[in-house]
Amino acid sequence: MYPTFQFIHSYWAYLVLFIVTIATINALAGFFGKKEYSPKDFRLALFALIVTHIQLLIGLVLLFVSPNGIQAISNNGMGAVMKDSTMRLYAVEHPTIMILAVVFITIGYSKHKKKLVSTPKFKMLAIFYTVTLLLMLSRIPWGQWLS
Known about the structure:
Elements: H1 2-32, H2 39-65, H3 70-76, H4 78-83, H5 85-114, H6 118-138, H7 142-145
């Protein structure tokens, strides 16, 4: 079960990173370019939200079945996990920051829907999706992910 979820989580992450990057660039271009908000923009923001939430669900399952997640804390104790940078990344930092990223993308998507004109819509998406992207990039385990 663990290898399957790890495989799915790792490869779905490429899609998430790609779509969130495109949605962020689109929101920034729409805001700074003073473009009209279109159904394409709505669909792109929604797709970024959906793939991110799916990744969260996969990640939460992985957190509980992985030897690097809750099991690492149970087996080694929180003190030992916090002293080891690799264990801390997998068991604490990565899950926490990614949950925050999902919270930000959800807030941004929800707030943008309440705006009635294009510039504030793009502004909400640009702010929250950029924060989401930066959070995600800060805690991807690049060493394992790219190898």
